[in-house]
Task: inverse folding
């Protein structure tokens, strides 16, 4: 009994000491850490993936430093000019893992000489599907007022074209418009479209843009395999036209 009593007394003493440590050491330390504040960078508007960040897209605010991620960005200097690697929403903290110093690859690095990237101007808001186009879309291009004609033409060589990027006049690629809010200003809207075309299509595009007004229409958005079916039909058509021009079609 005496031994049991001594054990209980010992355990009780340990419990009391532990409680005192928690009350007078651990708790004040946690409260102190929780009370500390630090500056962090917080998003103020929808930022699509692949967007170059500008000052109006975020704000620097002070928040509690306790339990913040170690990779949270704390300086605006580490934010401006960087590109997002994920879509960001208002109120999000910006993490270093969601920023890149390099512009997103929109397919330019895969060019092998058979096709080219060409940009065309969007003269009016409606010409580019009202800013709703996204990278990877399959679009058709129509030409109005070509050579002062009253009719609009639908060039078969531009029926199915892959969109690489829709770019604003500030040079920002709108690679993912689905996450943009509906109250964006005109400054956020594309002024050019960059498309992937053959050299022959590029010649047509330059001619049509110089002598008419180009309008884009969305044909397909979705699985890459399905998009490639449209692009393959265009490639086959262009191949046929090249064969005809070269006098090789039907043995001619």
Result:
């Amino acid at each position: 009994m005496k031994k049991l009593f001594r054990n209980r007394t010992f355990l009780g003493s340990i419990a009391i000491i532990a409680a005192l440590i928690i009350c007078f050491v651990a708790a004040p330390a946690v409260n102190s850490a929780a009370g500390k504040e630090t500056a962090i960078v917080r998003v103020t508007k929808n930022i699509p993936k692949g967007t170059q960040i500008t000052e109006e897209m975020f704000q620097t605010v002070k928040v509690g430093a306790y339990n913040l991620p170690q990779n949270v960005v704390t300086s605006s200097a580490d934010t401006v000019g960087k590109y997002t690697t994920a879509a960001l929403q208002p109120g999000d903290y910006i993490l270093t893992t969601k920023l890149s110093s390099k512009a997103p690859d929109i397919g330019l690095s895969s060019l092998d000489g058979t096709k080219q990237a060409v940009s065309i101007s969007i003269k009016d808001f409606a010409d580019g599907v009202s800013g709703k186009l996204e990278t990877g879309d399959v679009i058709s291009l129509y030409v109005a007022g070509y050579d002062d004609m009253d009719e609009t033409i639908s060039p078969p060589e531009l029926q199915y074209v892959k969109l690489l990027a829709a770019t604003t006049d500030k040079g920002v690629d709108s690679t993912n418009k689905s996450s943009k809010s509906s109250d964006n200003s005109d400054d956020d809207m594309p002024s050019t479209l960059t498309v992937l075309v053959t050299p022959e299509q590029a010649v047509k595009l330059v001619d049509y843009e110089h002598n008419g007004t180009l309008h884009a229409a969305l044909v397909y958005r979705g699985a890459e395999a399905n998009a490639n079916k449209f692009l393959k039909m265009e490639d086959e058509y262009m191949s046929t036209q090249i064969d005809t021009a070269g006098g090789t079609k039907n043995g001619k």
In short: The beta strands are 37-43, 58-64, 83-84, 99-100, 116-121, 138-144, 152-153, 161-168, 190-197, 213-220.
